């Protein structure tokens, strides 16, 4: 499976090797900047220049949750290995940890002096790694 974005703010999921389109997602109003499969493979999280993070459910064939709270474009997103949390990295110099079940931001991580460009959970832990245009990497404890 391959997920691709396009200039018209749609994403498409392609099956390999036949190249058939499995699903198309529409809803973001700006460029798509990141995507990550849920650990179970049943959902996809996407980030966008429209300042939002969206969760897409394959069985429902659409967006099931839009997370809003960043002040500027969101550059990247990642699922926690338990599947209950999503992390996002933004041009607003912050990253956020979202609780998917309560549909709210649990933590906002501040400290970078420029845009946060990527974010990733260390598998099976509460440690988050961010990279920034300020030329630093930061390790965060997502619980504090």
TrEMBL record:
Gene3D superfamilies: YVTN repeat-like/Quinoprotein amine dehydrogenase (2.130.10.10). One of its GO terms (cellular component) is axonemal central apparatus. WD repeats lie at residues 25-66, 67-108, 109-144. Keywords: Repeat, WD repeat. The keyword ATP-binding does not apply. GO terms for biological process: axoneme assembly. This is SPG16 protein. It comes from Pampusana beccarii. The gene is Spag16.
């Amino acid at each position: 499976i391959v997920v691709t974005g396009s200039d018209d703010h749609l994403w498409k999921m392609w099956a390999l090797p036949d190249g058939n389109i499995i699903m198309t997602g529409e809803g973001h109003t700006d460029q798509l900047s990141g995507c990550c499969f849920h650990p179970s493979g049943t959902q996809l999280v996407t980030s966008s220049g429209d300042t939002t993070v969206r969760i897409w459910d394959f069985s429902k064939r659409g967006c099931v949750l839009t997370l809003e709270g960043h002040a500027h474009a969101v550059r990247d997103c990642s699922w926690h290995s338990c599947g209950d949390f999503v992390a996002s990295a933004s041009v607003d110099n912050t990253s956020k940890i979202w609780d998917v079940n309560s549909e709210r931001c649990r933590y906002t991580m501040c400290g970078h002096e420029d845009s946060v460009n990527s974010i990733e959970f260390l598998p099976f832990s509460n440690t988050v790694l961010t990279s920034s245009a300020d030329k630093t990497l930061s390790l965060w404890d997502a619980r504090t």
